[in-house]
Specification:
- The complex is a heterodimer of chains A (157) and B (1063).
- Chain A contains four helices and eleven strands, in the order E-E-E-E-E-H-E-H-H-E-E-E-E-E-H.
- Chain A has helices spanning 58-61, 81-86, 91-96, 151-156; strands at residues 3-11, 14-19, 23-27, 42-48, 51-57, 74-78, 102-106, 108-116, 120-121, 135-140, 145-149.
- Chain A has a six-stranded mixed sheet, with no helix packed on it.
- In chain A, a hairpin with a 4-residue loop joins strand 10 (135-140) and strand 11.
- The mean pLDDT of chain A is 86.
- Chain B contains 34 helices and 41 strands.
- In chain B, helix 3 runs antiparallel to helix 4 (87-105).
- Chain B is 44% helix and 24% strand.
- By secondary structure, chain B is an alpha+beta fold.
- The relative contact order of chain B is 0.04.
- Classes of the chains: A mainly beta (157), B alpha+beta (1063).
- At the A-B interface, strand 4 and strand 5 of A face helix 1, helix 12, strand 24 and strand 25 of B.
Chain lengths: 157, 1063
């Protein structure tokens, strides 16, 4: 029986979660330099203490609208595959991680959610949202649902 | 595979790769036959392959194990002398090594790789001596007898050997023979009885029992010792093995290990250095992080220093304020004292005044003290900050050094490359490496590999002749290629030289002509060195036969581009028949590159300085004239060449705006191209509307162009603003952004924001610049430009007259310059003279006759006298200082500085100089001699002047006008011809420069003479240098006279004579 912790965030009113072991840090610095000619879902580059983070607009990535920056907006910086490999992390986790520093631009971050593997239910039947194809499951909370995202699929497709 | 296992495997992979890298040169050395050290080298190779076999066997990777096993067998046979090294065998072993390397790179996937081909190639070599393999049985202990020497066994185990025991019955001598053979395949641990101790005369056979340690495996040992497998037994030494393993662990990385390395005498010194020195394997990742943080530290330091300096200047301001307060207090005290003087008796007044004074002074002192204290505190902090500054710089520098790697990383593969290539081509080539220890940035080394590969392949393929050819030429049969690296002036130089056939300048010329890369005219002017540099042009390859080695479409142009991308340069030297040398100059580190910061739409971009050619700013008023449209894209006419333009904002797809002059705000701009900026207005548009339409032409919308060069091509990038040059640290881009060709990376700027680094090459291709078409378009202009340019330089003598003003005279007007003592100047009747060649030379001071500044300061003790030529009565011009003789294209500005005797001004090397009209000056000084000529013949006359050089045009126009002639001037012969042929044209004389673009003066004169209408027109040819030849040419063309350009007197006489004949 394995318990997993999820870092959650808001896109509009929807709550999503990703494996917390993939999260390096959450950043509120939003001075993002846009990059012309980049794929639409790339909102730009961010300076993270001397390292360049490529910021992905999670809204665009999941087929929603481009995110509008608010004081609650955050960039969730992910761990890199190399970093996880060096720490002998789980192979599946390492495979999902990005190869270089990547940040996810989200509207706000939510609480950390702990859930048993069994509590993660299979995603609902296709509801026509782009986001559905990136879901590995949903967690039911008292307040609502958390869509668990497949980061590997999001980054690689 | 579990994490831990995988880590072990990773270690093994890294280690094995190193082994394999070491094997390659060893195999090549063996092939050359190094002699005595062969056995050492073989042992080394054997050990390496053996370790690979053992290691990967442990992980159950049978494919790698199988291949290394085969190789090991062959190597063992070589070692025992039962097989001789041949090139074919070397090939097979090298192939095996390549395959091993391939399999090891993806160890987990190695099981899928087929090793059949290589195994088949190796099979015949092992087959001769390898009968049916039979594995020997294992026994727990060697044959009974005395206990075996433990140390010898351990030593054998450490060497990865197996321990065998067997018995046989032989004569003493036969036994001794066998023992010698066994020693070649292993170590004899024990032989009982020792045949040496047995009496030799005892002819009979004895039973011997042998313990042998050998690297041969149980399935091979029977072949090795030449005994049936049943007769041999393997000794179980697992207990000892454990012991050895424990000991090894303890002794790891200690002196013991080093001693073993040292004992390996075959290893070159370098090898021992590498393994034994104080080095540590560090992940590149970690270094990159360190570098990032160092960059960040530099940033913080800059911010700290900035805010500290701000504080400091604050304090200094306070100090100034305090002094102002002091002064104000003193002033009001003074004023008060003056007032009290009238009101109070003097005694009281003085007492009161003293008290007030004292109080005020004390208050000031208290303030002053406080300030001094704060200042001294800041000075203390300043020292600390300076320390931080220094340490930060050092940290950055040191971290930068950690990225340095020896070039051997790139060099080491070349012995093999050269060998294989030479074998393919049937040539004998030796590669000499030197300077492999020179260090370069890791990223440079990585990018250096391909260009080097190309150049070296070229050397072997095209440079080195076949052995027979070489012999005929009197060279050694074996060709040599040298690959050298060394330091020079803070840069690293890498040279590839060969003693082959060298470059043939004639063949290069023919090829370039044939391919249309140069014109015949250009070819005629080019030096040998210039021909050689043609090999770097795209689309150039002289190899007459296209081999599978070269001719793959990657040419020297790519080499050049790659090296330039690294911030380096390439140069070629060659002597036909003797060899070629290609020299590459590279920066030590790539990570920091000086870049120009520009901005577009308020966003900053960095452009690497290497690709920067020049900056051009076009005033709004000139935009229409200079920027035009060719096939729908903007081009700039820059010095007679067409330069394609790219608008950065549009290229990147930004929303473009422009500054509205009225409000200063940015407004969206919908224009497609700049050339469309000023469409010819319809005639009916009223003025007000025109103003509105033309608002984009205000001075604020001048166009700033950064001219970039990519390989041989140049183009202009239009930006909004050009800022400073900064040293930036290049950061690579994420895989998501690799497709954006316009960027070379990203950089973090001083304010912590990220800016993109532009890649000129990517931009060029992204913008789809059609250089070839433009090239064609501008070819005609280019030819024209080349000729014009040579004509346009003037040689000017510049000097001073004791003031800050700089004067200039055309050098062709100067006969002599003399240095004289001030005392030798004689004064007669208010005029100054100098005794000169038994004559008196009148001296002129510029400030007396021209509207220029008088000399400042004391009169000097000595002067210079400039004596002009081409004047009737020479007079000397006094100067206090000779400045320089400059060769330049002079553009005269005849508006800013005007006055009698002054042609105008010109800017040269950022200094303004005043051009002196000597004739005017002399006329002003001696109107009796120089003035008074009869000018009536010039009245109402019209002259056409054709002159392409602006300087001469200005001066000649001036001369003609001073005669009273009406002048019309044009810039070339073609234009002059149009004017002459124009309806209603009426000219009394044509003055034409001899050398001009499009239509020369000679051709123009000929045309005039051939024309029925114009044949009677007087023509005066003008030339910068009057020689017999020019006179002859001019007369042959039919000109009436040929005069020197600046000789006003002669021109007046000639014109006067010509015009008086004409009614």
């Amino acid at each position: 029986m394995a318990e997993k912790q999820y870092s959650t965030f808001l896109l509009g009113t929807d709550l999503f979660g990703i494996d917390i072991l993939l999260v390096r840090e959450i950043n509120r610095n939003l001075t993002i330099t846009p990059v012309e000619q980049a794929p639409k879902f790339v909102s730009g580059l961010l300076n993270l203490r001397g390292q360049i983070v490529t910021v992905v607009d999670m809204g665009v990535r999941l087929g929603l609208a481009r995110r509008v920056m608010t004081p609650q907006s955050r960039v969730i910086v992910l761990k890199t595959a190399q970093e996880l490999f060096a720490k002998h992390a789980d192979e599946r986790l390492t495979a999902a991680a990005p190869s270089d520093l990547l940040g996810l631009l989200v509207d706000a971050v939510g609480d950390m959610v702990t859930a048993d593997d069994k509590a993660v239910e299979p995603p609902p039947a296709n509801t026509g949202h782009v986001a559905d194809m990136f879901l590995t499951g949903v967690i039911k909370l008292e307040r609502g649902l958390v869509g668990v995202l497949d980061i590997g699929k999001i980054l690689r497709s | 595979m579990q994490g831990q296992d995988r880590e072990l495997l990773n270690e093994l992979v890294i280690e094995s790769r190193e082994h394999l890298t070491a094997i390659e040169p060893d195999l090549l050395t063996l092939e050359r036959g190094a002699g005595a050290s062969d056995v050492e080298i073989l042992n080394r190779i054997f050990r390496a392959v053996h370790n690979i076999k053992g290691g990967f066997g442990f992980f159950g990777l049978e494919n790698i194990k199988g291949l290394s096993h085969s190789m090991e067998n062959v190597l063992d046979l070589l070692r025992s002398g039962r097989l001789q090294m041949t090139p074919e065998l070397t090939d097979a072993l090298l192939k095996g090594m390549d395959l091993l390397r391939l399999m090891i790179r993806d160890a987990e996937g190695s099981e899928k790789v087929s090793a059949r081909e290589v195994l088949d190639r190796l099979a015949p070599y092992q087959g001769t001596d390898a009968p049916a393999e039979k594995k020997v049985a294992t026994v727990a202990k060697a044959a009974p007898g005395k206990p075996l020497p433990k140390e010898a066994l351990k030593q054998a185990i450490r060497g990865g050997q197996w321990i065998y025991t067997f018995s046989l019955t032989l004569t003493c001598n036969a036994m001794l023979g066998r023992m010698a053979a066994w020693k070649r395949i292993g170590t004899l641990i024990d032989v009982l009885p020792d045949p040496e101790t047995l009496p030799a005369d005892k002819g009979g056979e004895s039973a011997f029992s042998v313990v042998l340690a050998s690297i041969l495996e149980p399935d091979l040992i029977s072949v090795g010792v030449e005994l049936p497998a049943e007769q041999i037994q393997q000794v179980d030494v697992s207990e000892l093995k454990k012991e050895v393993a424990d000991e090894t662990k303890k002794a790891a990385a200690t002196a013991e290990a080093r001693k073993i390395m040292g004992a390996d005498k075959g290893g070159e010194a370098a090898r021992a250095d590498l393994s034994g020195s104080d080095t540590l394997r560090v992940r590149v990742n970690l270094l990159n992080n360190l570098m990032n943080m160092a960059g960040e530290l530099v940033l913080s330091r800059n911010q700290l220093m900035q805010s500290f300096n701000l504080k400091l200047s604050d304090l200094l301001d306070t100090g100034k304020l305090l002094r102002n307060v002091e002064r104000a207090v003193a002033d009001s005290l003074g004023a008060a004292a003056a007032r009290y003087e009238r009101l109070l008796p003097s005694e009281e007044r003085r007492a009161f005044q003293e008290t007030v004074d004292k109080e005020a002074r004390r208050a000031a002192a208290v303030l002053g003290q406080a300030l001094t204290l704060r200042m001294s505190e800041l000075t203390g902090i300043s020292a600390i900050i300076q320390n931080i500054d220094r340490v930060t710089s050092e940290i950055q520098e040191n971290i930068m050094q950690t990225r340095l790697q020896p070039v051997s990383v790139a060099f080491n593969k070349f012995p093999r490359v050269v060998r294989d290539l030479a074998r393919d081509l049937g040539k004998a080539v030796r590669l000499n490496l030197s300077g492999a220890e020179v260090e370069l940035d890791k990223s440079i080394i990585e990018m250096l590999s391909d260009p080097l590969n190309h150049i070296i392949r070229n050397s072997v393929d095209h440079g080195i002749e076949t052995p027979d050819e070489r012999e005929e030429l009197g060279k050694k049969r074996e060709g040599e290629v040298f690959l050298r690296a060394y330091h020079e002036g803070g840069k690293v130089l890498i040279e590839v030289a060969d003693d082959g056939s060298g470059l043939d300048p004639r063949r290069i010329r023919d090829k370039a002509l044939e391919k249309g890369l140069i014109s015949r005219d250009e070819a005629a002017r080019m030096s040998e060195k210039e021909f050689f540099s043609l090999i770097f042009l795209p689309g150039f390859s002289t190899a007459t036969t296209v081999s599978n080695v070269s001719g793959r479409g990657v040419g020297m142009d790519v080499v050049k581009t790659n090296i330039e991308r690294l911030g380096g340069t390439v140069d070629v030297e060659s002597e036909f028949g003797r060899g070629t040398r290609i020299k590459m100059q590279l920066p030590l580190t790539l990570a920091i590159i000086p870049s120009l910061i520009v901005s577009v739409e308020g966003r900053r971009f960095a452009i690497p300085q290497v690709s920067l050619d020049e900056l051009v700013r076009i005033r709004a008023a000139d935009v229409a004239a200079k920027i035009e449209s060719v096939q729908g894209s903007d081009v700039l006419r820059l010095r007679g060449k067409l330069l394609p333009l790219v608008r950065l904002s549009r290229l990147l797809g930004m929303d473009t705006t422009f500054v509205e002059p009225g409000t200063g705000s940015r407004v969206e701009d919908r224009r497609e191209a700049l050339a469309g900026r000023r469409q010819p207005e319809p005639a009916a548009v009223d003025d007000e509307k025109r103003q509105v339409r033309d608002r984009r032409q205000s001075s604020r919308s001048s166009v700033k162009i950064v001219v970039l060069k990519v390989a041989e091509n140049r183009f202009g990038l239009i930006v909004d603003e050009v800022h400073d040059t900064e040293e930036i640290i290049v950061k690579p881009l994420s895989a998501y952004l690799k497709k954006c060709l316009c960027y070379a990376g990203a950089a973090i700027m001083g304010d912590g924001r990220v800016a993109m680094i532009l890649d000129p090459m990517g931009i060029g291709s992204n913008a789809g610049l059609k250089f070839a078409e433009l090239e064609k378009e501008s070819a005609a202009e280019k030819a024209r430009h080349a000729r014009v340019h040579a004509e346009e330089e003037q040689e000017m003598l510049t000097f001073r007259n004791g003031s800050s003003e700089l004067f200039a005279i055309d050098l062709s007007m100067v006969a002599r310059i003399e240095q004289i003592e001030a005392a030798s100047i004689e004064h007669v009747g208010g005029k100054e003279y100098l005794k000169y060649d038994d004559r008196s030379l009148r001296l002129l001071r510029l400030d007396r006759f021209l509207p220029v500044a008088p000399p400042a300061g004391n009169a000097p003790a000595s002067y210079y006298v400039i004596v002009p030529r081409r004047v009737r009565h020479p007079m000397g011009i006094l100067a206090t200082k000779m400045e320089d003789v400059v060769n330049a294209r002079i553009v005269i500005d005849s508006h800013n500085v005007v006055g009698r005797g002054i042609i105008g001004s010109a800017i040269l090397n950022k200094k303004m100089m005043i051009l002196v009209d000597i004739y005017d000056l002399f006329e002003a000084a001696e109107p009796d001699i120089y003035g008074g000529a009869d000018l009536s013949v010039f009245r109402g006359r019209r002259a056409l002047l054709a002159e392409d050089t602006p300087f001469f045009r200005t001066v000649e126009e001036r001369y003609l006008r001073s005669f009273g002639v009406e002048v019309e001037s044009v810039c070339d012969g073609e234009e002059a011809w149009q004017k002459l042929m124009g309806a209603g044209a009426r000219y009394d004389v044509l003055l034409t420069d001899m050398e001009m673009p499009s239509l020369s003066g000679v051709e123009l004169t000929r045309k005039v003479r051939e024309s029925a209408r114009l044949k009677g027109l007087p023509v005066v040819m003008l030339t910068a240098l009057q020689t017999g030849k020019t006179l002859e040419k001019s007369a042959a063309a039919g000109a009436d006279a040929c005069e020197a350009k600046l000789d006003k007197e002669q021109l007046r006489r000639t014109l006067s004579a010509l015009l008086s004949k004409r009614q």
